[in-house]
Amino acid sequence: MEKKNKKPKDSNRKSINIKDIDISSLKNYFNQRTLIGVSLVGALVFVVVYVFVFLDYTQRTEALEQSNAELKQELTVLEEYYRNMNTYKQEIEEMQASINTILEEYPADAREEDILMLAVQMQEDHEIAYKSINMEEREGVYTVAYDFIAATGMEELKNDIIFTQKHATYVNETTYDELKDCIAQIYDSPNRIGIDNIVYRKNEESGTLDGNINLYFYSAAGTNKEYVAPDIAAYISGTDDLFQLGKVIKNNVSGNEQEAAESVEAEETE
Predict the structure, then answer these.
(1) How far apart are alpha carbons 6 and 2 in whole angstroms?
(2) Residue 103: how many CB atoms within 10 A of its CB?
(3) What is the reported pLDDT for 37?
(4) Can you name the residues that pair with 215 across neighbouring β-strands?
(5) pLDDT for the residue numbered 173
(6) What is the distance between the alpha carbons of residues 41 and 102, in angstroms, rounded to a whole number?
(7) Nearest by Cα to 252 from 153, 127, 130
(8) Residue 197: helix, strand or coil by DSSP?
(9) What whole-number distance in Å separates Cα of residue 242 and Cα of residue 14?
(10) Is 211 within 8 Å of 199 (Cβ atoms)?
């Protein structure tokens, strides 16, 4: 008895015999695939290593080399400082001495008392009569910041140093010789004084010089000095000639009379 529903045989279908497969070709195929995969993995690993390891290492190396170069430069400078340390110390001491010498010439302040006492001293020593003495407010000229001072190593100076000036005008009457002596006394003053200008004209009636002397009184604040007021003697009231105008004119007239007498004697001798 024949079985039903039996599938007919496909005449086009070929049966594959395992013996017919080329083992060598299959092996080469898998080897090629494996080689490509390994190559891709190796390339990926190389890229990862290059980007995350080699480049980072290169950047760190460059940064380290730059840092070493900077440190080497600093080391060279420090070695230079060390070799010249004694010279630098000597130069610093000389600089500090120079600064102290300059500051020593400036008083802590210049006030009205100093201006008036200079006038009194010149009047005591020379024939000069004042018509007026004018003064202006003190003004700053130059400031040395504390940061710059601290760099000098002068620990005793703890503030800005401010150089100031105070202007004074002495309107007076005197003679030529006395004027020269007054100027010499101004230069010899212990105060720091600068002459602004000197303007005079001849008084034809009295033969004296009328004019004014303009001065700058300089000082420096912040040098740890204390202001020392001049010794002002008690004023004696009751004088009839406060500015001693008569004394100057009288002396000048006496001088003119003496010159006239000497001229007459010279003519008689001739």
Answers:
(1) 9
(2) 18
(3) 67
(4) 168, 195
(5) 95
(6) 81
(7) 127
(8) strand
(9) 151
(10) yes
Please tell me the total number of residues recorded for the chain in this structure: 270
Task: Using 70 as the pLDDT threshold, list the residues of the chain that sit under it.
Answer: 1-33, 35, 37-38, 42, 46-56, 233-270
Single-letter amino acid code for the residue at 130: Y
For residues 165 and 114, the answer to whether their CB atoms sit within 8 Å is no
Q: Measure the CA angle with vertex 166, ends 164 and 168; round to 5°.
A: 160
| pLDDT at residue number 88 | 84
pLDDT on residue 117? 94
* 219-229 core/surface letters (b: 16 or more CB in 10 A; e: else): bbbbbeeeeee
Q: Spell out the residues 6+ positions from residue 128 whose beta carbon is closer than 8 angstroms to its own.
A: 122, 172, 173, 174, 178, 179, 182, 244, 248
Q: Which residues, in sequence order, are CB contacts of 86 under 8 Å at separation 6+?
A: none
Neighbouring C-beta atoms of residue 57, cutoff 10 Å: 10
